[in-house]
Amino acid sequence: MLTRIHHVGVAVADLDESIGLYRAALGADLVHREVNEREGLEAAFLRTGDGEVELMSALRPDSPVGKFLAKRGPGLHHVAFGVTDIGQALADARAAGCELIDAEPRMGMHGSLIAFVHPKSLGGVLTEFVEI
Ligand code: CO
Question: What is the pTM for the complete model shown?
Fold first, then answer.
């Protein structure tokens, strides 16, 4: 059911500059770029072999990513696992005592169902499930 690490999310100050850096330094290909007005972020997905990196920049300082950048600076934001049944993954995480940020799956970018688990539940790492 849990398949692999699907992507890692990295908060960045300048999305264009970071895309250029990841392309030049890692040879990563830009596969998708999307503005999410509701979440106040713009994200770019770059393929890195079997997985992806999600670069995220803030549209507004008061958005969640804007607050993250103000508080912690650029860096690792979340780790996302691919799951075949996101409802079951959430039920299992809840049963294991994890605090869920999303009690129900919601539509994320890429048109995939996603849900987040609170970082305090999994070693201080914000964790995302992506249904694949
Ligand atoms: Co993500």
Answer: 0.94
